[in-house]
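Section: protein folds

Sequence with per-residue C-alpha cells
===
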Amino acid sequence: MRQGQSLVMTPQLLQAIKLLQLSNLELSAMVEEELERNPLLERIEDRPDGEPTLASTNSDAYDDYESDGLGTHSEGEGGEGVGDYASIREGDWASEELHADTSSLQTSLDTDLGNTFDEDRTAPSASLEPMSDGLSATSWTGSPGGGEDGEASNLEAYVAATTNLREHLTEQLALACPDPIDRMIGHAIIDSIEDSGYLSATVDDIADRLGTPVKRVEAILKIVQGFDPTGVGARDLAECLAIQLREQDRFDPAMQVLVANLPLLAKRDFAALRKLCGVDDEDMADMVSEIRRLDPKPGRAFGGGPIQSVVPDVSVRAASDGSWHVEINSEGLPRVLVNQTYAARVGKGAPGSTDRSFIATCLQNANWLTKSLEQRAKTILKVATEIVRQQDAFFAQGVEHLRPLNLKTIADAIGMHESTVSRVTSNKYMSTPRGLFEMKYFFTASIPARSGGEAHSAEAVRFRIKQLIDQETADDVLSDDAIVLKLKGANIDIARRTVAKYRESLRIPSSVERRREKASMHRA
C-alpha cells in the first residue's frame, strides 16, 4: 500500500478550462450543442415577449461588465436568483374565455384562424392545454407551424445560395461540350481544380483514370481554361498569367519571355529581364505593371466557404479624464438561461428514479454552464484590463511605445497562473481606437537598450525598421548593417541577423533587390 496526493480534475472544471480558450465562434457552436442536448437550457432570444426573467441567466451580468476606468468594473446582479417563471394561474387563460375570444375574432374578420401566418399564433404562455375548434397547443407556443404538407415555412429556402467554383464551371461545361464523353472528361478536370483555380492533377493521371487518350484530355483542358474566371485550370503560375494575357491580347513575344522568367521578376532583376526581352526601361515598366494587375489565384473570387468576420471580445475606448474604459462585448457572447420552473414540473412528474436522475443531471450541467460563461467573461475582462494598464503608452502614442510584455507579468499582477492567461488570450480580439488586435499581439519579446535603460519591444523595433526602409531613397538604400547602426544610434542594441529576420517577417526584400527596383523606377 502507498499513500500519495494527486490532482483530480472534475468534468465541470475541465469544461470551465476549455471555455476559456474557445473563440466566440467556437463558444457559440459549443453552446448550440448544449442547447440541443439539455432540455432545461434556453436562449434568451427564444423567450416570448413579456415573459418574466428566468433564473440563472448570464445576460444581465454580461450587459453590466463595464470598467469604471482601469482596474475596476461593476458586476451586474444577474446571477442566481434573478427571477423565475411566473406561474400561470388556473382561469387566467381558461379554455372558455379563449374559445369566446377566438369565436368573436373569426366573426369580425369573416375568416378562419387557420389562414393566419405561423408567426401570428403566439401567446405569452407555454403551458396551455390543447384547445378545440382546430386550435392546437403548437399554435400558441411559438413552435413552428406547418402547412398542408406538414412542413414549416422557411424563408431561407427562398434565398439564393452562393455558387462555388465547381458549380460555376459545371454550368459552363454543359454549354461548351455537347458530347457526353467530353463532358465526362470535363467533369474529371473540374473535380481536380482547387479552390485557388489551379489544376492539381496531371493530364496523364486523368487520362489513365478515364482510359482516354492524353490528346483528348488536353483538348478538353483547353476548353476549360477558356471558362470564366480567366486563368482557371492552369497548372502553374506562368500558365495562369499567360491565359489572362491571351484573353487581353497582350501575350506578345516580349511578354512571353517575361512570363517564362518569373524567378528573375521575383528577384527584381530588371536589367537581366530587359536584356532577355529586348525592351527599354519604359516598356519594361509597362509590362511589369500589366503583370501586377493580373489575378494569380482566379478561383478565390468564389472562395471555399463563407468568410467569418472577427468579432472582438473586448472593446477599449478613451474616457474624458484620460483613462481607458474596458468593456466586454456582450453581443458576441451566447446568452443562455435555465428554466427552473420547467425543471421543477418535470421533476415532480417523473415516475422513476432514472428520469429524476436525468433531470437532476441536466439541471446541474445547465447551472454550471451559465456560471462558467459568467466566470469566463469576468476572467477575460480582468486580463484585458491589466493588458491595457501595462500598454497604456501604446494606446496613447502608437506602436513605437509598445512595451515588452510576457504572460508572467500579467499573471502576477492579477493573481492567476500563466496557463490561465495564455488560454484567455488565445483567439481573443480587442477593439481599440488604433484598430482591432489579437490579445497575443501585446505580448512581445524584449530587446535591450545600449545604455542599460528601459528595454524595447520587438514589435516597436520592427515598426522602426519599416519606417527606416520606407524613408530611404534610390541613392541611399539601407543595408542590414546600416539599419543596425541607425538603431544603435536610437539606443537599441540589436544584431544584424535579428534585423534580417524582422525584415523578412515584414516581407521586405533585401537591399540589393530594393536598389534594383528603385533604380528601375527612377529611370522609368
About this structure: The mean pLDDT is 77. The first strand starts at residue 41 and ends at 43. The beta strands are 41-43, 66-67, 73-74, 314-318, 324-328, 336-338, 429-432, 435-438, 446-447, 456-457. The radius of gyration is 33 Å.
